Amino acid sequence: MEINNQLITILQEIKRQKPLVHHITNYVTVNDCANIVLALGGSPVMADDQDEVEEMVSIASALVLNIGTLNKRSMESFLIAGKKANEIGVPVILDPVGVGATNLRNEIVRRILKNVKLSVLRGNMSEIKNIYGIAASTKGVDSIDNPLDGGKEIALELAKRLQCTVVITGAVDIISDGGTVYYINNGHEMLTNITGTGCMSSSLIGLCCGTGKGSLHGAIAGMMIMGIAGEKAQSRLKEYEGLGSFKVYLMDAISKFSIEDIQERGKVNEIK
Amino acid sequence: MEINNQLITILQEIKRQKPLVHHITNYVTVNDCANIVLALGGSPVMADDQDEVEEMVSIASALVLNIGTLNKRSMESFLIAGKKANEIGVPVILDPVGVGATNLRNEIVRRILKNVKLSVLRGNMSEIKNIYGIAASTKGVDSIDNPLDGGKEIALELAKRLQCTVVITGAVDIISDGGTVYYINNGHEMLTNITGTGCMSSSLIGLCCGTGKGSLHGAIAGMMIMGIAGEKAQSRLKEYEGLGSFKVYLMDAISKFSIEDIQERGKVNEIK
Amino acid sequence: MEINNQLITILQEIKRQKPLVHHITNYVTVNDCANIVLALGGSPVMADDQDEVEEMVSIASALVLNIGTLNKRSMESFLIAGKKANEIGVPVILDPVGVGATNLRNEIVRRILKNVKLSVLRGNMSEIKNIYGIAASTKGVDSIDNPLDGGKEIALELAKRLQCTVVITGAVDIISDGGTVYYINNGHEMLTNITGTGCMSSSLIGLCCGTGKGSLHGAIAGMMIMGIAGEKAQSRLKEYEGLGSFKVYLMDAISKFSIEDIQERGKVNEIK
């Protein structure tokens, strides 16, 4: 399939370029984010002080902003790093963890969207709906429950409005660049039972976008790789094994990820 | 046994309610705390900025305060979140990591005890003895070395004084609500050789208390579940496996935890 | 071999003394650093607030300063803790993560070197070359690419200048106290594919130096233990296993580490 060939190219470019992915992220899942980037062949760096984020993003191939444990200090760093990334053409991925839960999270997302041009916005249905509402300033955010019931339209519309790629993750991942919409049918529900799979997906998207192959294909590649790794991890589980083993097998699957995985397991479809 | 039935109810309620446990905690073991809450069926959230902790605790079922890597910023957040939790009836669990080691730790514990009504205080013998001394302001804290030699009296007395459930963890866990005292004889000494088992116990207690079944039974349930999971993890170890595998098996055991585990392995006794 | 006997003594002293290793470190790999210290038989503590680091280092046997995610707050703590450690004779290990990448990192390293007497400086070739250049203020830092091509001279010269033990880690580890130079030929390249092996090496060096057996032998012991554990972890991997399993096996190997491992696998040589 045409799209698979482009995802394979991204995978090969990661191994060749070893892109540096600068994260300003939360302290809950940061270790997993660093390890997943390394495991796929990239190079992670985490730095959040206002006095060094500009320099750090200047040597990076992608910037991942994750607001999981934001604070007033890191909020300024998000904006400084994001603006610098825009200035020098480094793709910016935003993971708006928990937006909608507190005003502080709404505020930082609003400020980032106002000041930074995103390449990819990735969130779950609740987060994306919140941003959709925030951005619209008029529409309620609680009307849609099933991502497949309205997710396509929200992704498409929000992508147009923000002029970036929007990813809604769930049982099916919905990805749109404002023109086309893709569904990815990879993954396993066990992924929702360990912390950080959302954050790790954003890191993988950052890594894939860091190859310079575009935000739409970068987002699709990142989500598909995470989904397939989840499937492979689950398939290795013995009856008596649980989430501890699953997480180990997930990282194994990422570090063993191959072209064949995409060819044999990849399930992405453009939705008309 | 009567008590086991109540613990089983808590386990069932966790699966049914999926309580949200708000943590203000250290950056050393935070990932493990999040994963253990998820693995048992709850929902963890970590947020520590003063400007959002009130809102976050307002949507939570329990609040866990862990001072492991406290700083002046998080100290204020402990108090703000704790007071709000009291106001709206959310149970507060305090894990006074390392209290006694520095004045800063003594100070924050003193301020929390003065301003926040706890549901559960959980620490090791050294920490609880320090608090016993602090709260009394008169009694030395180094007189007792073996938890079984004095722990019962300290737990009972401190629970009365603070009007909360006190948990002293060790080879035997001692739990008192100021009226009764329970000993739990589950666990394995390997639990002391990985970081965060204390923190994770506090998170499990938070999760169990988040079901609304009371702090005494919540504390007993959390400690027993941790102890049994440690036993099961150790029993899976092959001769050549060590602490890396143990931690994986521990998380496996939590995610596979069942009613039968309590019925077959639970060792809790009320001490007269 | 003479040197091996000294390393074995350090290993035995760790089990006997259980040294407390105070870390001021980054939030990316901190959990692994705590676990590796515990797994070898030591006791880790992480504390970074300016108001408690002096007290904490006062009860510690070693201090590890790691600038991985430095910020203006932790920068002051590095200096306060380092000076106190010097005052009371606690060995200080510096891990200058990413020095050279940003001015902030260069600045804190310069300030630490000016104000704190190190026992051990451990970095990769790029980091050590940067410090060599900073300290000299005259020599460029980009002239040498292969650690074996110039690393020996840099380690020897920098160790003399800073009057401490310098460790350059790579495929071969180069260690000098300014008088002698040792090469360690243990390790496996998979160690570079998980985050934190550098940080963990520094923690192990801190633990080994915490036994009071000197910084040169402490540094050699720490690096050799890490290297051998990496070899053993890799040798356990099945064909379908990857970096997730490798990390588990690494921690297993540390917790099972024995005198025989040093005797049978240790590869350290003094270079004339």
Automatic annotation (TrEMBL), chains A, B, C:
Q: Which cofactor does it need?
A: Mg(2+)
Task: Name the pathway it acts in.
Answer: Cofactor biosynthesis; thiamine diphosphate biosynthesis; 4-methyl-5-(2-phosphoethyl)-thiazole from 5-(2-hydroxyethyl)-4-methylthiazole: step 1/1
Catalysed transformations (reactions): 5-(2-hydroxyethyl)-4-methylthiazole + ATP = 4-methyl-5-(2-phosphooxyethyl)-thiazole + ADP + H(+)
SUPFAM superfamilies reported for this sequence: Ribokinase-like
- EC numbers on record: 2.7.1.50
Do you know which Pfam families this protein is assigned to? HK
- Binding residues for substrate, per the UniProt record? M46, G196
Q: Where does ATP bind?
A: R122, T169
Instruction: Write out the entry's keywords from A to Z.
Output: ATP-binding, Kinase, Magnesium, Metal-binding, Nucleotide-binding, Thiamine biosynthesis, Transferase
Q: Where is the signal peptide?
A: none
GO biological process assignments:
thiamine biosynthetic process; thiamine diphosphate biosynthetic process
Primary role: Catalyzes the phosphorylation of the hydroxyl group of 4-methyl-5-beta-hydroxyethylthiazole (THZ).
Q: Which NCBIfam families match?
A: PRK09355.1, thiM
What family, per the record?
Belongs to the Thz kinase family.
What's the protein called, per UniProt? Hydroxyethylthiazole kinase
Q: What is the lineage of its organism?
A: Bacteria, Bacillati, Bacillota, Clostridia, Eubacteriales
